[in-house]
Amino acid sequence: MGRGRGVVGSGRGKRFAIAAMMTAAVWWVPAAPAAVVDVAANDGKAPLADVVVSLHAPVATSAPARAVMDQRDSTFLPGVLAVQAGTTVSFPNSDTVRHQVYSFSPAKPFELPLYEGTPLAPVLFDRPGVVVVGCNIHDWMIGYIVVLDTPHFAKTDASGRLRIDLPAGRYRLQAWHSRGIGEPVSRVVDVPAEGLSETVSLALGPPPVSRRGSDRLRALQERFRRLERDP
Amino acid sequence: MRSRLQTKIIALLILVVLAAQLATFAVVHVATGRSVSRQLTQDLELAERVWQRFYTSRSGQLLESAVVLADDFGFKSAVASDDQATMESALRNQASRIGADAALLLTPGGEWRAGLEGADAAVQRAAIEPLLAQAREEGFAVSVVAVDGKLYVMALLPVMAPHQIAWVAIGSTLGDAYANDFRALTGMDASFADRHGAGFRVYASSLPAQARASLSALDAAGIRPDRSVVSRTLGGSQYFVLAEPLSGGGSAPVLLVLQGSLDAAMAPYSQLKTRIALLSGLAGLIALVVAALLGRGISRPVSQLAQAAQRIQAGDYSQPVQARGRDEISGLASALDHMQRGIAAREERIVHQANHDALTGLPNRAFAREQLDQALASGSDARGAVLMLDLDRFKEINDTLGHDFGDQVLREVGKRLRQSVREADTVARLGGDEFMVLLHDVDADTAGQRAQSLLERLRQPLDLPTTRVTLDCSIGMALHPAHGRDASTLLRRADIALYDAKQARSGVAVYREGRDEVHLRQLGLMGDLRQSIARGQLHLKFQPKVDLAQRQVRHVEALLRWDHPALGPIPPDEFIPLAERSGYVHELTRFVVEQALRQNSRWRDEGLDLGVAINLSAMDLMDADLPDFIHDCQRRHRVPPARIILEVTEGALMRDVDYAVRMLHRLRAGGIRLSIDDFGTGYSSLAQLKRMPVDELKIDKSFVMQMTEGSDDAVIVRSTIELGHNMGLSVIAEGVETDASLALLRRYRCDMVQGYFFSPPLAADALLDWCRAFAAEAEA
User: Among B59, B589, B602, B758, which residue has the fewest nearby CB atoms (within 10 Å)?
Assistant: First the structure.
């Protein structure tokens, strides 16, 4: 695939992602023996979970598939969902309260009106990119759906590791994390038939403060008052 | 005029009250000043705490508004749309919905997205930078931001959808309205300012414009943003000022400056002070009234007493001293009254004693004189008479019957006099046996009759317990206005009349015109006489006594002459009686004795053996020292005693015969010869004459000068000569002026003669010459 590769990114890399898809569409990739890629992710110090690592062949592919992002205890589950473009994701509601799931991400803006149980229609994510999903009622709820134009991707487990089975060949390796900052990790790797072990280090931003409902405002005010008292 | 005591009391009381009021006022002033300052300080500090709440509350509201805005789904949608126009309109819409004065939108990276119209985007962006930094740290930020000269409270929040898609900030103007709200809440003024040069840049304030301008001009360094309270004058009023930073950090943070008006805080107290001042004035007024009343209550009686004392001092005892009440002052008044009465009584007694004679109870000389003056002053034309009255022979009564008896006589005389005149007339005792009677409103005749009746009344026998006496007296009278218009003249002339009456033994004598002049001449002469010896005005002349049988000068009579420097020669007949009256005759006699014997001694030195005859006065017979003086003088001048003849008048001898006899014996003890002068005028009896140890009779010249053949005088002279010879006395006749009388005397065998026929009295030298001439003639 040479330089062709899919681009995994957040909303920030919109144009770059489109260009990557167009390039992938014209590259041709010959059949190759199966190989295994092991990736260990860290933030420079410790192993890092929920890192989506994808290996892109020059030609972008999409395939219909199904995935689920549940809402349980007012939390998206899983918080990070990686899918191949063309996947329809269902957002069942396992809570007793209603949720209104939406996203303003350019890859897939959508809004599901208030609902309980499973919505009638799952949402199709046919364009690669990162879709940040929120609930309009519960501000603290946040979920990420990483739409990729490759079938070769995985998410690191709690020990920061993952394994991808794929034909040997040249790929562009990309890694994404919801708190990643700076230049996205993207490098070309040649995967031999005997497999490959890669390590990716990501620079992370500060973890988002977890706040729930009116607690957020109250916390803000308390903080504010404390600041005022003790300048 | 208000008395000094009252003034003092008033002043004291008012001083006390004023001092108390002043002290109260001062205490209140200081206390309220401190209290108000403390209260204001506390109020300011309280206001500062309230400000925290106020600001926190406002800021919290702003923050809530911002949260609501940031959480608004539509707004998020608009922001997420990434369309500039959409974003701006949504921002404006939301801002107006929540009433924000400012709003702006940034990318999560802090780049400018949208803002309200007005201020320049770059300026707003720059102003918000500190907030952004804080919000990145804290997740949000609320702070005061100055934008383009205006202050805002800004709240900055992320817009989460659900990850951050933008920063949104909304602001509320921190303007005058804000300060006024705070002022309405706390009563304290609030200002928002930052340092600008040396002073302040005031963004907003609830202060009045003038005070606000003053605040701008204040020295910013003097007001530290550490919540300490300082006092400053703003716009002419006193304020307490407290400052603290509004927004944290920064080189020139915006300050909250709280101002509490001291004047406003003092206002209720100044009302209190006004009331206190009013009450003080009232108290002062009451004190004034009370003090005036009190002062009157004390000072008036005191000044009345003082007046009473002055009245008493002036001798007015007529008004009783009274004071109401039962206090010390009325006690004092009572004591003063007693004292006044006592003084009055004593003074009356003393005055009476001073004015009256203790013995008779009659007015005394001074008082009588006073009354006479008053009578003359009251009516100078009124007629009247002054009678001077003197008892005859009162000395004898006193001497023989004793002073007690004399006093009884005087009392009786006084009583009789008093009874004999009208009530209006005055009877006074002038002293001794001298009385005075003032007869009012009488003419000369009536006065004479009255005087005569007085005399008769007094001549009536006086029956006293022990004996009965018959009195005689003399009265001299001077009439007003005929004899004088003033008391001195009248008294003097009455006195002269009395003298005349005594001399004349006439009982009553009225003053005769001219007597006064004689009297005055006599008074003058009396005075001059005393100086005459010292001034050498006296000298002796000598008249020879010629022995008829032997036709030679046996003796000369020394005669005293006085040459008055102004009046010329004064005859002895005039000045000798004056000398006797004044008692100066003793000195004169001694002078004559001294001079005569000295002269005799000289003659004796010249070889002239003359006897010298010296006249003695009746008074000289009373002079117990005279015999010794004469004997001493005789020895000193070595004059043989037999050559000294002392001539004593018959009258003088007859006054007190016994004494005279004793005296004569003493005088002739050394061999001095004695002669009876003026013989024939003295009423001596032969028996008395017989007792007299004399050597010579001198027939009075009144018989000799008129003597002619066969006259009575010739008979007397002849008889006297014979009588004298028969008694063994030599006889001398004086006043021989004619040849005829000399012939008769020679025929009558008179021993010696003396007179102008031979020679007038001569000076010593002239006599010497005359004697030699006479001797020569006799031999021839």
Answer: B602
